[in-house]
Golgi to ER traffic protein 1
Amino acid sequence: MQNSTLLFWISLLTIVSNILSITGHSKFEQFVFRTYTKATQSSKYAQYKKLKDEQISINRERSLLSAQDNYAKWTKLNRKFDQLSEKLAAIESELNMNKVKVESTIKLALKFTTVVPITLMKVWYSRTSLFYIPQGVFPWFMNYFVINFPFMTKGSVGIFFWCFCLNRVFWCLYDILKFFFIDEKVEKPTKLNVDADSTTVSTKKTE
């Protein structure tokens, strides 16, 4: 693999892995699962919703009846309610099992598309120079012992150092953007001014 190609792929995979860490794997899994179920399990969910609405309707009707005055009708509704509960439990169990399978597949896919390739690249290309930095940009000890880790040609940037720098820059930029656009602004604390000659208390924002 050419150095430029290796640099592109390791950078892309590292950024994607960090983005997934921000959004949360669980949110991504839920999004994929919802998309999957809409495409393949829509009829099953429609059936579940229909039975659930019917069960709610029966329960509402049953609650309006007196078991003593309308025993036959109340018993019939109660039997139908139990039958619907069994059907709903079976469908719910099937959907939950399907959800577990899909989420396991997604987790495995995420590992094989981000974590595994990054690890393999770091091992396989550990002594490959991605690019070179002109002499004098960094102190001599960094050229010999840091940027060229693990002990490559002086001035060459290896995959370990590049991934470290890329991660640091990514998370620094994220913290900056989060501070300005995501985090809620904290209001200035108010200062209480108490008049010694009266019981009046006034509030004033601190300058």
